[in-house]
Amino acid sequence: MSGYTGKSLRVDLTRKKTESFETPMELRADFIGGRGMGVGLIGERITNAWDSPGTPLVFATGPLVGTASPTSGRLSVVSRSPLTGTVFDCSVGGRFGTELKKAGFDLIEITGRADDWVLLDIKDNAVSIEDGRKLSGKNTSELSGGFKNCSHAVIGRAGENGVRFASIVFDGHYCAGRGGLGTLMGAKRLKAVRVKGTGNIRVQDPGQLKSAREEIMRLLRASQAVFGEFGLSEFGTAALVDLIHSRRMEPTRNFCATFFPEAGAYSGYRMLTRYKAKKAGCAGCPVLCKKLGAGGEVMPEFESASHFGALNGISDIEAIVEANRVCNDYGMDTITAASTIACHSEITGEAIGPDEFIRLLHSIGEKDDGLGEALGEGSLRYARSLGREDLSMSVKGLELPAYDPRGAYGMALAYATSNRGGCHLRAYPISHEILRKPVATDRFSFEGKARTIKIAEDMNAAVDSLTACKFVFFAAGLEEYAKAINAVTGMDYDVQKLLKTGERIWLLERKLNGLNGFGPPDDDLPERFFKEEGTSSAHIKIPPLDRNDFLNALRNYYRIRGYKGFDRPDIKVS
Predict the structure, then answer these.
(1) What pLDDT digit, counting tens, does each position of 224-264 carry?
(2) Contact at 8 Å (CB) between 331 and 159?
(3) Cβ–Cβ under 8 Å, residues 271 and 316
(4) Cβ count near 115 (within 10 Å)
(5) DSSP secondary structure string, 297-318?
(6) Is the peptide bond between 251 and the residue preceding it cis, with omega within 30 degrees of 0?
(7) Can you give the pLDDT at residue 567?
(8) 48 and 61 Cβ atoms separated by less than 8 Å
(9) CA neighbours closer than 13 Å in the CB half-sphere of residue 346
(10) Direct distance between the N- and C-terminal alpha carbons of the chain, in angstroms, rounded to an integer
(11) What integer best gives the mean pLDDT of the chain?
């Protein structure tokens, strides 16, 4: 099958053994690649404790990686989350996926635990496990300077120290951030993976792929959300700061409010002009949504900027950019770090200024005192230890990103149903509720949202398995990407087959979570959203979510999904 190398790599860190094996044909046929292939490969081994040597950590490419298909440089990192306990994947950019494919491997499966820090080195077919003790104790910026002419995935001190939301940082600033997969890498005593490949990726029909690429690019160029004057290519994801601010759905002070008057201080435009930011991006990407300052500063993504800002009541743009740098350097998820500090601020009743915020981030990364260690457990464990679990703004233990659900009811439902916890990217109803793509829906209604969310979840599971970028789907769709994957592999995918594959992946994830004790009571939101209103204006009313309407939408979702057991005795319907 073209588009795949047909070969994968198995690494046992305990025995310090590596071996190649044939990429299972059933994984390719049933799960495509990326997220799906990783979840399918792990299977019921997910019931191992996250830090068990037998728990696999998978780096998985897809068939489009390394080809001319737009946004073809991504890969998925898959395992069980140390933060949530759920099956977990992160889609990440950079060049790692491309280099891994060129080295001849579709995926890497890593098990075991080294007796001391090691480095996994891959140069085409030459694979070795090397002494990594000289790398230990270093943060990601120190490590990146030592890796030349290759792609690399590393953990910083947060991953070494067991911070539950540690990231894996690729090529300096592309993060597999959410869920703590860097913590898992640290538990395996794997400090870094570097890879360099020189091979080529075979494409079944280059002419057909060129045609598919041209069609996708035509749609992208016509999209105001992507290439427009105020779009992602121009301002990066921080273009959303002003939009979400104006819709009064901006999580502020641990979601106590939904409007932060000073948000303009760190808008996409403000970052662009203050730091003279230039475009950067992943291998194979025409959008180039990453923004780097003239001095090399990595501009925060929307969720990071909003949570360092509004969620913590901070408007100092330099502090926000510095907070982003500190998290990237230690290798920590920005959303969970900011959310946990905001939770701490509400519990203690103490406002946290920019200097103290930065100090707390360092303390978390180092785990150098009792508070830093407690905050390093994430907001749910921290709040639970103080008897204030209600102030953790999380679902299934994963902190909510920068879209207040009281301002977008599809987002409320998607947070609750997400297999990996409080995540906006499983369905991303913001596309139609706020960006009005592909068609606008009423953001203050649950009507029709159950089926919409189900379809979007299946679609995004397929997109993550193609290892394409979700931003492209503001313009193109599965129809265009079906043509691309068919050109690469010689298969006969259409939209319905891709959606069916996405559904297969989703249901497997649900099953694996069920094996670890997750069920209907976990498909819920913090009570705050049902009891407290947001920040209204003369023109926009932000009431609390109606519990009955939410439960009815969730019940409809269960029916459409075919889930059993919607009995919710844990919830009292008023």
Answers:
(1) 889 988 888 999 999 999 999 999 999 999 999 999 999 99
(2) yes
(3) no
(4) 9
(5) PBPPPHHHHHHHTGGGT---HH
(6) no
(7) 61
(8) no
(9) 23
(10) 56
(11) 95
Residue 145 has pLDDT above 90, yes or no: no
Sequence-ordered list of residues with C-beta below 8 angstroms from that of 273, at least 6 positions apart, any chain: none
Q: Helical H runs in 267-369?
A: 268-275, 302-308, 317-330, 334-348, 354-366
Percentage of the chain exceeding pLDDT 70: 98
CA distances from 267 to 29, 167, 358, 456, 470 (A): 43, 25, 20, 28, 22
How far, CA to CA in Å, does 67 sit from each of 71, 211, 470, 533?
9, 13, 18, 48
Per-residue tokens: 308: 């360092």
- Cβ atoms within 10 A of the Cβ of 146, count? 13
| Residue 568 pLDDT grade (very low, low, confident, very high; cuts 50, 70, 90) | low
Closest listed residue to residue 157, CA positions, set 465, 8, 364 = 364
Q: 129: how many CB neighbours lie within 10 A of its CB?
A: 18
**Amino acid residing at 137:** G
- Residue 230's pLDDT is 85
Tokens at 405, concatenated: 């659900």
- Between strands 151-154 and 190-196, the pairing is antiparallel
Choose among 176, 160, 155: nearest CA to 77.
Answer: 176
* Domains of the chain (ranges, CATH numbers): 7-196 (3.60.9.10), 230-403 (1.10.569.10), 417-561 (1.10.599.10)
Q: How many CB atoms neighbour CB 24 within 10 A?
A: 15
| Residue-wise pLDDT tens digits, 4-51 | 999 999 999 999 999 999 999 999 999 999 999 999 999 999 999 999
Cα dihedral 234, 237, 238, 240 sign = positive
Contact 151/197 with Cβ under 8 angstroms?
Answer: no
Q: What is the rounded (10 degree) CA torsion for 302, 305, 306, 312?
A: 160
The residues, ordered by sequence, that sit 6+ positions from 358 with a Cβ below 8 Å of its Cβ are 319, 322, 323, 326
Structure tokens at 526: 């913090």
Round to whole Å and give the CA distance between 467 and 463.
6
DSSP bridge partners of 279: 291
Euclidean distance between CA atoms 464 and 74, whole angstroms: 9
Judge whether residue 573 has pLDDT over 80. Answer: no
Q: 130: which strand partners? A: 119
Tell me the angle at which helices 334-348 and 317-330 cross, rounded to the nearest 10 degrees: 120
Nearest partner of 256 among 566, 542, 549, 553, judged by Cα: 542
513 closest CA partner among 52, 87, 50, 38: 87
* Predicted confidence (pLDDT) per residue in 493-517, tens digit: 999 999 999 999 999 999 999 999 9
* Distance from the Cα of residue 396 to its chain's centroid: 15
Q: Phi first, then psi: what are they for 297, rounded to 5°?
A: -65, 135
Q: What kind and span of H or E run contains 557? A: helix 547-561
Residues 152, 143 contacting (CB under 8 angstroms) = yes
Torsion of CA 305, 308, 311, 317, to 10 degrees: -70
Tokens 């930065």 belong to: 358
Phi-psi sector, 493: left (phi>0), alpha (psi -120 to 50), beta = beta
